[in-house]
Design brief:
With about 110 residues, this protein is α/β, with parallel strands linked by helices. It contains six helices and five strands. Strand 2 (about 20-25), helix 2 and strand 3 form a beta-alpha-beta unit. The protein starts with a strand and ends in a 13-residue tail after the last helix.
Length: about 110
Amino acid sequence: MVQTLTALEAAALLGSQRVDVVDVRDEREWVTGHLAGSRLVPLDQLRADPDAALSRDSIVLFVCAKGVRSLTAAKLAERLGYTAIYNLEGGTTQWARAGLPLVTEHRVAA
């Protein structure tokens, strides 16, 4: 069953357990701000080969900008038999509104 967590609940989970944070946005969105320790697996890539992107032994927290794509990803994982699945309600938007930090990528022009 997919469990939806508020930003504060997700932060508590991340502070208490080892969690695979999977951000399903595209790279352009990801570089503007993502959860520390998250990894980028765009939703289309996840749909194409979920078993290559996920570990059945991990607790997985899916993240996107507003919680819609991450819920889609979480439901896909649930249908495939993954069990420890969480969705970040409101995505990175609510995470930031809760005053929690996002990591941004700084690109250097070539």
